[in-house]
Predict the structure.
Amino acid sequence: MSTKEVFWLLSFVWMALATGCSHQSEGRIALYPVFGKLLIDGQPAVGATIKFVPVGQDSKNNWIATSGHRSAAATVQSDGTFQASYYDSNDGAPPGKHKLMILWLTASDGGGLPVDRLRGKYCDPKRFRYEIEVREQENPLGVIELSGGEAR
């Protein structure tokens, strides 16, 4: 299998895990539009994946991922825009607090597994940098700008 094929296979698997594989026709939770733009050094982060991890607080007010809740996800388009998807494409995210996890895979030099162009800085649950609250309305996030792998 070529490096490019491995890259796309892993990208697909990660996206499937990020959004969940089940499709329920009954008992769906309410979703609300969440959209924005992701730029790296002023340029669109085309193909980057954003995962919206639902969170709560433990007894010491530390942020923790909420168990039993799957995450919405989005893929950054050619103009840098993204829209959250949960059950279907661009259908939104459930209400509540979420931390954003960002992964931008690219083929590695010399073949092998793809690497995160952001060097894992935005996909470590212990170091989430962006917190949002999805409200029961449209949720424009504006522009998220990253520079040299660091948040601005």
